[in-house]
Amino acid sequence: MNIALILSGGTGTRLASDIPKQYIEVYGKPIISYCIESLSAHRQIDAIQIIADSAWQKPIQSWLPAYEPGKKFRGFSAPGSNRQLSILNGLEAIRKYADDSDYVFIHDAARPLLTPKQITACLDAAKGHDGVIPVLPMKDTVYSSADGKRITALLDRSEIYAGQAPEVFRLGVYYAANVRLLPDRIKNINGSTEPAVMAGLDVAMIFGDENNFKITTKADLERFQSIVKESQSL
User: Fold this and answer.
1) Digit-coded pLDDT (tens) for 63-91
2) Which of 90, 104, 203, 213 could bond 131 through an S-S bridge, CB–CB 3.0 to 4.6 Å?
3) Cross-strand partners of 123
4) 84: alpha, beta or left, given left = phi > 0 and alpha = psi -120 to 50?
């Protein structure tokens, strides 16, 4: 089984919006519904679990009939105090109906431009590995600074990649990797793949999709609005 875990527990404070960014409507659709629709329609996704604050669970459920054609939604999980604890809450819920050999497909609700091609690429690449992460090569010269004031070293950009989403992991070993970081180290995790790397899991890389950006700022939202408008005019 492949279970999609959609992270929708964030507050979106950097966008300075009245509501979390993933619930802002763009051309009549909440942002979260764009990725729900893509995942629900994909033949390789078997179930969907959503991390969402209790205040937003009823609205999301009211949107599902229109944007969840595959009827794959299995339930909600509560957000944790940080992103990785939210993921752990989702993993614990998923383990009640999935096997440890199944795969969990982790994606942000605020990344609405998830394509069927990217979903397929991630799931296919995960076979035979503990996980997979899409990455983007670095285009600019990359430097290291020990104090944030002076350049310490020039890094080889051919060996450096920017991690993206979605990330896919074998459920059992990834859950164990997260539990191993409790109670304190998990609070310092910034990316979903970090626990897997820290546990020495076999994580493959594939090329990501530059259009699969995360809506964080007002400029990101405007960019997404322009993309949707252009696609609707075709």
Assistant:
1) 999 999 899 999 999 999 999 999 999 99
2) 203
3) none
4) alpha
